[in-house]
Amino acid sequence: MVVRLSEQWPEVSPDRLLSECVPPPRFADARFTTYRPNPDEPTQAEALTALEARATQLASPRPTRSLWSRLRPSSPDPGKQGIYLDGGFGVGKTHLLASLWHEAAAPKMYCTFVELTNLVGALGLRAAVESLSSYRLICIDEFELDDPGDTMLISRLLAQLADAGVELAATSNTLPDKLGEGRFQAVDFLREIQALAARFDVRRIDGPDYRHRGLPSAPDPWPDEKVEYEAAVRRNASCDHFVDLHRHLAELHPSKYGALLDGVETVAITDVRPLTDENVALRMVVLADRMYDRNLPLLASGVPLDELFSKDMLKGGYRKKYLRALSRLIALARAA
Fold first, then answer.
1. Claim: this prediction has a pTM higher than 0.70
2. How far apart are CA 205 and CA 92, in angstroms?
């Protein structure tokens, strides 16, 4: 029976949000030994070496801090308590981050930046700090600052966790001292952004998007009838009209988008249309991320996927988000 995502209303508890903070199924088997650096891009091998060295340290449980170290004020120079992988799409940053998580001692946490903000929103800052302060490692994929609220919240959270001895690792498409540029008045939050940047050892990873090496930018869309037929004959497939789906997403908190896909093995969307509303577009980005995490093939009709976001959007402050979403949606469409 075909599922309509637009008719599902999942409920997600804070406990579930925390328990799901592990690498997505696509990267469940990611290890340093399965990462293949591009020989034409030396920064990839350099990043691998740096992560392997850090993993050796993190494989041991956290050393017990003395009473004096817990009571004394934080140093004005926090040092490089985390590693930050900066690079384009599809160069293996997430593979390396997941590999680091797999090597580290427990307790540990892996999440996207959006999932982290959702978790803190559900728990509250104080409860989140109390829950996570004993962790050995927190990995944050797709680190980004989209608004002033996120900047203040995450700055305070990570500062308190790092002061408690938690190691941090992150990936992003933006250098840490450039976070927020083009999205809000980042200059007003320069102190917070610089304080975050100071905590990370930044490693640049260059290279082409491995998901599209030698392949066309987007597959041709199918007719509506073929999408609906394929959804009907495939096991545990969903099928929704594009407008019904994005309207439904507006009524769900983004923290529930993953649960929305529970039990789904293929996603079918008919009549995909170009987007001009930034809010709708950003919700589709989150859904694309959750689909990619679960490696769900995408069947689509309407406009080609590389026409989903308008040209103006691809020039704006969220450009990198949209390009990442396109990269992932196209990869899922090819998998179908």
1. yes
2. 8
